[in-house]
Design a protein that fits this description.
It contains one helix and no strands. The chain has one helix at residues 2-88.
Length: 89
C-alpha cells in the first residue's frame, strides 16, 4: 500500500509542477500581451499625430502653391514692364 500512496503522491506532485509551469506561462503571456497592447497604443498615437502633421503640411503646401499660382501673372507683368522700360531707355 505505501508504494501506491507514494506513486499517487508522485503523480500529484508532477501534476502540481505542470500546473505551476502552466500558470507561469499564463502570467508571462499576459505580460507579453500587455506590453504589445502598450506598444500598439503608442503606435496608434504616433500614427494619429503623423496624420495630423501631414494634414497641416498638405494644407501649407496647397497655400504655397496657390500663392505661387497667383504671383506668376504679377511677375510676368513686372518682367514685361522692366523690358518695356529698358527698351525705351
Amino acid at each position: 500500500m505505501p508504494d501506491v500512496v507514494a506513486e499517487a503522491l508522485n503523480r500529484l506532485s508532477a501534476a502540481l509542477d505542470r500546473l505551476d509551469a502552466a500558470s507561469l506561462r499564463h502570467v508571462e503571456a499576459d505580460r507579453v500581451r500587455a506590453t504589445l497592447e502598450t506598444e500598439l497604443a503608442v503606435m496608434r498615437e504616433d500614427r494619429h499625430r503623423l496624420a495630423e502633421m501631414l494634414d497641416l503640411e498638405t494644407g501649407a503646401r496647397r497655400e504655397a502653391d496657390q500663392c505661387l499660382h497667383d504671383l506668376v501673372p504679377r511677375i510676368d507683368r513686372a518682367i514685361s514692364a522692366v523690358r518695356a522700360g529698358l527698351a525705351e531707355g
